[in-house]
Structure formats: C-alpha cells, structure tokens
Amino acid sequence: MKYHGIKNFLATTGYAGYLPGAPGTWGSIVAILIWYGLQHLLSPPYIIVLTVLLFFIGVWVAMGISKYDEEEDPSHIVIDELVGQWIPLWFIPVTPIYIILAFILFRIFDIAKPWPVSLFDRIPGGWGIMLDDVAAGIYALLIIEAIQFIL
Fold it and tell me: Given this model, what pLDDT does residue 2 score?
C-alpha cells in the first residue's frame, strides 16, 4: 500500500522513486535536473540553504513513509538521493563533465557505502535514511574539490 499526499510526493522526489529499475539512480537524475534549473535562479549559498532545509524535510517525510510502509528504508524514498546528490554539485563549474562526475561519484559512494557512510546507514528511521546519503555526498564533494584543486 502506498502513502498518498504531500509526504509521498516529497519523499519520492516527485514520484521519481516509483520509476522502474533503480529508484536511487532515478532520484539522483531528477535531483540533477532540479538543481540545474535552480542554479540558474539561485546563487550557491541559497542552494546550500535549500539543501539543508530539504534534509530536515527528508527526515520528517522518510520517517512517516517508512512507518506507514512498515519498512526501515523503502526503496521508493529518494529524497535522500536528492539531498545527497546536491552536495557534490554545490561548488562545481556547470559543465557536463563535472555534473557527470558528481553523479558517478555520489552513486558509487551511495551504493558501496564505505566507512563512515555504512555507520550512518545503520541509524534507524528518517535520520539514517537521510544521513548515509549526506555522507556519500560529502565524499563525492571532497573528491571533486580535490580534482579542482589539482587542476
């Protein structure tokens, strides 16, 4: 049974979490599309603030949906991918190569869950659903920043 309403719309990032195959990957793709549209309208500090706001909204909606679905981390919840994917996009040049790099790095860290991402993944409820993706996003951000520093 699916939860209906605004929580479901937000938790699934506009229902992207229901797309077939790999909901997390779809969530990341939709996150990039939303970010791309917003970054032409908002300066980076506002996007960072929006990311933080969406994090707390994500904790709330993920907690509600996971309780409703009686699952610890339902795969259709992808607001965590939206927040996590936006983190490595914060300071990049808006070029295809950097956008693709941010996508690939985030997905690798989100799927592989290296330490400490794996620790956050064990936290129950909405906090755990959101925090492991934030940690994966921070890993991707650090690598992209290192690449930009070297180049």
Answer: 53
Closest CA to 84 of 126, 15, 135: 135
In order, the DSSP letters of 112-134 are H--TTHHHHHTS-HHHHHHHHHH
Q: How far is CA 108 from CA 12, 26, 66, in A?
A: 21, 14, 24
* Contact yes or no for 127/59 (Cβ under 8 A): yes
pLDDT tens digits, one per residue of 78-126: 999 999 999 999 999 999 999 999 999 999 999 999 999 999 989 999 9
Residue 111 lies in a domain: yes
Number of domains in the chain: 1
Q: Which amino acid is present at 151?
A: L
* pTM of the predicted protein model: 0.93
Cα 111 to Cα 85: distance, rounded to the nearest angstrom: 13
Q: Is residue 1 included in any domain, yes or no?
A: no
The parent domain of residue 42 ranges over 6-150
Pair 78, 23: CB distance under 8 Å? yes
Q: Is the dihedral of CA 61, 67, 73, 74 positive or negative?
A: negative
